[in-house]
């Protein structure tokens, strides 16, 4: 912390100095010479000496502060504990004599009543027994929407927001029961598959838990998935029911004619906008009607649910072709919740609900009161303001941050850790492993190191993850059920990903790039003889090394009037490159 303070003071002083130099330069450009300016401010040789003197004084002050406060920091931060934790062994082989034996994490087995549950319906029922009167889920009420003209003439839609409305565990359990019976009344049967095409919201959670209670399966789709991907998922799962929101009904008009199995669409109504329900050849059912139907339905018993029953078919983003449906059974999700308790979207919610933690739903446009999409006259309550403060004030971040999805560069990692004054750990895992598989140890502060050929003591090879959290495979696509990342196990049991076998990379902005597809596309050009594509996962772009076709390049040069250039000159010529 002291070192950060010292860097801040020095950087701030350098910033002021640079700003002064910039002002000097602007004055020079405006007609005032440097010579005249320095005559006004003093001898130019004195300024660097003055800057050095001030910096030395600041460094001396900080050094004295370091010496005075070192004993206090030593007692408060207790570095001897961190050193002991750093030396701990994280994982060991089950059988040290067998090189094929897996590594398992070292640690005590957690104990909690919820860990005795083996299916998601039982997990939620147990949570209701333990935390019945606690707030469980809530969402901020959107009273209406208005159009406001901004100062630049742009018309911006703004929400009029009310208060958060909370449901206790008991109230939520009752609503899930009504939705489950409502789904039965509209034809959802035991073992049926219901497609979920909506943002994460209260109705999403109600439907998912209701389908689990019926012994059915939910199929989740990204809301930014293209029309072809949605059609592929609906036809592959042969789902007869779909849950979406009123905002996506217009898009569904293009999809329904190409999905013959789809019979009913259940949509969440908008309070301030009428749904476009015209022109559909399938039944449209408002979500509010499900609970009404559930109240009128007979008290029929639901089918049983086993740990090996499919709970979720989670479709990927489909960046490299048709989206793949990852099969997650109840045992997978329960297994990762248990691992999470000892140490991703459906998982995070299920874990928090199981632990009695309240969840509030919001969109990026309604999460904070200062959003430009919220009308200034909207109601503000103390709870909402306090929640916003927790997210807007960096001083209130008191815990840890775990990231995933794509790697973070070392500079960004250090920047986030310094800004929020928290421990930041990067996780590694896949949709196919129910999100998390392994994560950095907060107490491991050893050097990162490099992938070197002399690291022979560390076992290296293809990473194979085996546990209850590992998905059963891809839906109707068994040949793709493989993991092809290479890793090394260090002496302390830590896993380090050192290589990726498959011809696929995820960039910093979570975009997948299939090298073969890019290379084929570039090779189709008559100007290209050969091409090699490379991408760094910590960057946002792809690099291509190309060998041009000499004849085609010469023909292009003739069209541009550059007949007398050599092959190398043609490759270096900016006009030819742009053409």
Automatic annotation (TrEMBL):
Catalytic EC class: ligase
One family name in Pfam for this protein: AMP-binding
EC number assigned by the record: 6.2.1.3
SUPFAM superfamilies from the UniProt entry: Acetyl-CoA synthetase-like
Keyword DNA repair: no
Keywords: ATP-binding, Fatty acid metabolism, Ligase, Lipid metabolism, Nucleotide-binding
GO BP term (any one): long-chain fatty-acyl-CoA metabolic process
Gene Ontology CC, one term: plasma membrane
Organism: Leptotrombidium deliense
Family classification: Belongs to the ATP-dependent AMP-binding enzyme family.
Domain AMP-dependent synthetase/ligase as annotated: residue spans: 162-338, 356-475
UniProt entry tagged with the keyword Transmembrane: no
PANTHER family in alphabetical order: ACYL-COA SYNTHETASE LONG-CHAIN, ISOFORM J, LONG-CHAIN-FATTY-ACID--COA LIGASE
Catalytic activity: a long-chain fatty acid + ATP + CoA = a long-chain fatty acyl-CoA + AMP + diphosphate
A GO MF term: palmitoyl-CoA ligase activity
Entry protein name: long-chain-fatty-acid--CoA ligase
């Amino acid at each position: 912390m002291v070192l950060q303070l010292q860097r801040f003071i020095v950087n701030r002083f350098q910033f002021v100095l640079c700003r002064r130099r910039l002002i000097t330069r602007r004055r020079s450009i405006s007609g005032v010479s440097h010579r005249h300016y320095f005559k006004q401010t003093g001898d130019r040789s004195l300024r660097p000496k003055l800057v050095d003197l001030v910096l030395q004084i600041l460094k001396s002050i900080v050094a004295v502060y370091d010496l005075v406060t070192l004993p206090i920091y030593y007692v408060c931060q207790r570095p001897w504990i961190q050193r002991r934790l750093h030396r701990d062994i994280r994982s060991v082989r089950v059988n040290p004599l067998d090189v094929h034996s897996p590594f398992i994490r070292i640690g005590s087995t957690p104990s909690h009543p919820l860990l005795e549950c083996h299916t998601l319906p039982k997990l939620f029922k147990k949570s209701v027994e333990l935390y019945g009167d606690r707030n469980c889920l809530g969402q901020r009420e959107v009273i209406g929407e208005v159009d406001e003209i901004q100062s630049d003439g742009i018309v911006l839609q703004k929400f009029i927001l009310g208060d958060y409305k909370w449901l206790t565990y008991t109230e939520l359990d009752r609503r899930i029961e009504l939705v489950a019976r409502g789904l039965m009344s509209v034809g959802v049967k035991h073992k049926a598959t219901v497609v979920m095409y909506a943002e994460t919201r209260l109705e999403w959670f109600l439907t998912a838990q209701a389908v689990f209670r019926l012994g059915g399966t939910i199929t989740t789709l990204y809301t930014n998935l293209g029309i072809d991907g949605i059609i592929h998922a609906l036809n592959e799962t042969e789902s007869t029911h779909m849950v979406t929101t009123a905002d996506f009904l217009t898009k569904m008009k293009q999809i329904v004619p190409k999905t013959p199995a789809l019979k009913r669409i259940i949509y969440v109504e908008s309070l301030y906008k009428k749904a476009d329900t015209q022109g559909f050849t399938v039944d449209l059912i408002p979500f509010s009607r499900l609970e009404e139907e559930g109240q009128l339905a007979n008290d029929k018993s639901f089918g049983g649910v086993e740990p090996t029953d499919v709970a979720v078919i989670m479709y990927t983003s489909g960046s490299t072709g048709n989206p793949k449906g990852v099969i997650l059974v109840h045992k997978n999700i329960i297994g990762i919740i248990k691992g999470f308790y000892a140490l991703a979207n459906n998982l995070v919610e299920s874990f928090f609900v199981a632990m009695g933690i309240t969840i509030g739903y919001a969109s990026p446009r309604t999460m904070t009161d200062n959003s430009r999409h919220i009308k200034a006259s909207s109601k503000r309550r103390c709870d909402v303001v306090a929640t916003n403060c927790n997210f807007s004030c960096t001083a209130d971040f008191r815990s840890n941050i775990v990231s995933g999805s794509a790697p973070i560069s070392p500079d960004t990692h250090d920047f986030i850790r310094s800004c929020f004054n928290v421990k930041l750990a990067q996780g590694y895992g896949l949709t196919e492993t129910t999100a998390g598989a392994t994560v950095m140890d907060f107490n491991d502060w050893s050097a990162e190191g490099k992938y070197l050929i002399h690291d022979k003591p560390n076992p290296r090879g293809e990473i194979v993850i085996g546990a209850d959290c590992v998905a059963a495979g891809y839906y109707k696509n068994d040949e793709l059920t493989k993991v092809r990342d290479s890793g090394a196990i260090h002496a302390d049991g830590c896993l380090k990903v050192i290589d990726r076998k498959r011809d696929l990379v995820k960039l910093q902005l979570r975009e997948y790039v299939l090298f073969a597809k890019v290379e084929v596309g570039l090779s189709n050009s008559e100007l290209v003889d050969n091409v090699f594509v490379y991408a760094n996962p910590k960057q946002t772009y792809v690099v291509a090394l190309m060998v041009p076709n000499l004849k085609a390049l010469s023909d292009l040069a003739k069209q541009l009037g550059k007949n007398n250039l050599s092959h190398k000159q043609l490759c270096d010529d900016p006009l030819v490159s742009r053409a």
